[in-house]
Amino acid sequence: MTVLADADLRLNANVVDYMLLAMYFLLVIGIGYMARRRVSTSLDFFLSGRSLPAWVTGLAFISANLGAIEVMGMSANGAEYGMPTAHYFWIGAVPAMLFLGIVMMPFYYGSKVRSVPEFMLRRFGKTAHLVNGISFATAQVLIAGANLFLLASVVNLLLGWPLWVSVVVAAMIVLSYTALGGLSAAIYNEVLQFVVIVAALLPLTIVGLYKVGGWQGLVDKVSAGPGGPEQLSSWPGNQLTGFENNFLSVLGLVFGLGFVLSFGYWTTNFVEVQRALAAKSMSAAQRTPIIGAFPKLLIPFIVIIPGMVAGVAVTELQGENKAALLAGDPAPSGATFNNALLLLMRDLLPNGMLGVAIAGLLASFMAGMAANLSSFNTVFTYDIWQTYLRRNRPDDYYLRVGRVVTVIATVLAIGTAFIASTYANLMDYLQQLFSFFNAPLFATFILGMFWRRMTPAAGWVGLVSGTATAVLVFVLTESGVWVLPGQGGAFVGAGAAFVVDIVVSVAVTAVTAPKPADQLVGLVWSLTPKESRQRSTTGEDAGWYRNPGLLAGIVLVITIVLNIIF
To answer: Which residues are listed as membrane-spanning (predicted)?
Structure first.
């Protein structure tokens, strides 16, 4: 792997920057220690006792997603593809977040499940539950490794330590507060980290635009460089999807990214759902993803634009370097698109502000990895260990298991960090993982929720078939049998996984027996009484500004306007 410190590209941090970082780390660990005092049961550790207000869980919801891959990965996408990257937010996130809040959360929260795999257990039985539990746990370790690799890359650039040392040290910092305070420590740190991330990236965006002559200067430079003016408009996004045909590109974005990948991620990914399940009421749980959608609309402006600026203003990513990377070849400078944000910080920020920016990056990496660890330990402890290996033990036993599992997951993430290091753009890696794990799960989940006839056998057979299909598409694209540059392979894989899962599930349902209707109440839309899906409108849930439907409508209008403008 390329280590930029070897190429004399170290960040020029001084004593002030290091002091700011030290203060930040002490604060983070202190929050973990204070949260530990509130942990007395496994429910406290894994779901914060279902006691948090909507504004806390809403900010944590978006911060958990605003990890290393989101910040540096989307900046890398900005440097490589430009404005089409906004589709990951306005098409590939917000609509699904609104659907989660309005439609899905009443089922999750109302059934009092502790995880998404537990919902699968009640709907489809043990086989589907075990398949989903194992696949989810695997995905979280792989994604945590990607977050950890980028966190270690910053430490490597900052201190010049060998990458493996940086990986281990970075992992220990996250482990310290996650193992201490469980989900509460992760959530309260995520709220802090959201503020720090914005405080770091907003000044960088403003200074970056000033450097290139404002928005018009950026437009002129991007138009004249590799990639050309196509990088200035989000539609049709051909470079991002890999399709030359505009219709196919739009279809890939709307169906592959906007429907399958997006809904598969936001509505069934327990990393996100876990934050909403920690809310204190049904109304707060519904509002959690909707509150998170407001900042999600604006995040593209502080992660994509700096990436675009880096692509035209940073020497190591300009001209022949960018052209080589766009062609899939190593850049003569040794840099990759993953380095875009770091190199821009190096070039533009003075000491002091550099310390804040570095803290913001580290905050994003820790938020992402802590979210992966806290969801992994919940699913492994409840859905695998308690259900299949050690049943009916005292509650404090599962609390101890959760802490041990957090340590084990951290060690595994150190190993998977080196898999992530082989990708020049980690968003390529992330989208592949989503096509494997999230797309087929969404197909099984949504079919089972709205079709009462779907059988337990169809649940697990469809899930396995969809995953196998996505893996097959990945193998075909990697081997060159099917040429799909950019992230088109992931979009096609996700779409294929979804379709195959649905077809197989329908076929298996036709020849197997369904569950009795009385066992599906609260799990299938048509069999669940409307009153059990209703939120409270009194007390802390009263007021028009706490109406999930109204808030979702406002977000949807803003989303449509942004898609029209850009």
So the answer is: 18-35, 55-76, 88-109, 130-155, 161-180, 192-210, 247-268, 289-314, 353-380, 401-423, 429-450, 457-477, 489-511, 544-565
Name the H helices within 328-421: 340-348, 353-378, 395-420
* Token pair 């503020």: residue: 195
Contacts of 548 (CB under 8 A, 6+ apart): 101, 102, 283, 286, 287, 290, 535
CA distance 231 to 249: 14
CA angle 29, 35, 39 (to 5 degrees): 135
CA 518 – CA 514 distance, rounded (Å) = 11
Residue that the structure tokens 């509130």 belong to? 38
Secondary element (H or E) of residue 153: helix 126-159
Query: CA-CA distance, 505 to 511, in Å (whole number)?
Result: 10
Q: Yes or no: say if 499 and 470 are a contact pair by the CB < 8 Å rule.
A: no
In the chain, the domains with their CATH numbers are: 15-46+53-247+280-421+530-565 (1.20.1730.10)
Report field, pTM of the whole predicted structure over 0.85? no
| Residues of the chain below pLDDT 50 | 1-8
CB 117 within 8 A of CB 135: no
In this prediction, residue 485 carries a pLDDT of 63
Q: Which residues pair with 52 in a beta bridge?
A: 279
Q: What is the pLDDT of residue 71?
A: 78
In angstroms, the Cα distances linking 557 to 89, 220, 262, 478 are 14, 30, 19, 39
pLDDT of residue 6: 43
Q: What is the pLDDT of residue 3?
A: 42
Tracing tokens 């809040």 back to the chain, one arrives at 101
Whether residue 426 contacts residue 97, with contact meaning beta carbons closer than 8 Å, is answered with no
Q: For residue 399, give both structure tokens.
A: 């609390």
Omega of the bond prior to 236 within 30 degrees of 0, cis?
yes
